[in-house]
Design brief:
By secondary structure, this protein is of the alpha+beta class. It is about 30% helix and about 45% strand.
Length: about 140
Amino acid sequence: MYNEVRAFIENKPGKLSHMLEVLAKAEIDILAMEIADEGRFGVVKFLTAEPERAKQMLADANFAVVLNLVVVIEIPDKPGGLVSLSKALESVNLNVTDAYGCILERGKRAIFVVKGDNLEAIEAAVQNAGLKILDTLR
């Protein structure tokens, strides 16, 4: 499992830029990101090689921020690359409650970030399918 950073920011112009400036000044690289609109506030979910430091930098800048355990899975970047992952989870009756992904190397590999009710079972199913779980992003 891996710590995803979740920051809660007001849905107003400039708020996202301010959060990103805090991370940039600390030289924290964002590897994958998703933004969800939740009305007056948005949830910014992202992966970084330094989740604990990112959390601290944002907290010091008065952002509401938490770390959230997720499973980060490496998959081949090709048509149908997600099929093996979805079939692995389906075969053991596991449901995904939240997910996003990004390409690491076009035509070679991508990552998919998964949240579900049972992260240990998700990891086991993914490993049994021959897919790689990433526990570091360095």
